Amino acid sequence: TLAWGGSWGINSYVIKCTKDINHSQIARPASLGPYDIPGFNLFNLKGRRKEMEQKYGPEKTKVLAKYVGTGAITKAIATEIVETLWGEAPPIEKTKAILLCQTYQLNPLMKHLYLVGYKRRDRDGNYIEDGQGNLVLDWSMQIGIGATRLMAQRKHNYSYLDLTPRKATKEEIDTILGDTADPNSIYGFVHLKDVDTGAEAFGLRGIGKNERIKGEEKGNTHLNMACVRAERLALDRQYPGEMPQGVEVVDERFIDTTYKVVDETGGEGISPLIGGEKSGETAGEEESGVESGETVSSPPKKTPKPEKIGASAAEVAEGEGFSINLDWLRESQKTLKWTDDTVLTFIIGQYKVSGTSVTGALQKLTREQAEDFTRQINNRIEKQKPLF
């Protein structure tokens, strides 16, 4: 600080920032954690190796220890890490994780990225097994909030204002959401400012108070998850196009780093995908026995063709007696400037369903909820029209 502007009152001075005399707030600068500093781990290799053995076991540690303090993440390095940690994951999921690690220079060994396998259940709640008796899994790629900050801080210098992240005040919720706020949700608020450009961005995200969250038994809270989602939203708005899209953001402090198979909620839960059905198929097709070569005397059961909600198109998210046009939804998101994260949180908070993807959550709506969802989206678009 610097005394600026001469005397102020009697025997006193005005103290102002040396970089910008117009600063009127105290901002907390964003800073990298020790695990994000290249080469940091080289100073404590024994400690890091012991920590890895506790997480991954001695065999995987032998393979992966050399990559803990590595600099650039090449495709070859990312491939070996992903194959060692999640070799049982489907090839497409491993490929996506490898490309994400290489493109954004993320290291799973430094708590940047996770692949988690969720046990798939059928409509009766029973786990689904394949022909060999193995559990059928749906895989989800997740990025830690620390990695999200790291990606932003590599290129930008920004600060947190107004003591954020924190719980949103009633005034902030009313200003941003108005009468659309869910009284059964808790909202997190984040206010960011780019130090170099002066640009500011806000993030407000909610989560249902009764929604089960991952890591709750380890101390994770609904407010913490709301703040994590709010921070990701603020970073998306502050630096659009720089963050990977369609990937769930989590608090890595509460992620099970042993990478074992878990239920969606961290305990008893339902998979994001509905077991036993594929998009575009009727419920009776799988029971017909045609795929397995069996002959059945009774004709396959038929269900009424779901009615499409939204404009007609080939790509849809189907539920019980309805289907939502995903092309319509994507165009609506562009108009509203909503990310997939925004839509997912809205669906979960509004209709009290679970899911780690927009499509998965939509599939769990009732027909009445689906109609209400499309109506609310269209109403928001109508309200925005006078602004254009």
TrEMBL record:
This is Uncharacterized protein. Residues 266-311 are annotated as: Disordered. Residues 290-300 have a biased composition (Low complexity). It comes from marine sediment metagenome.
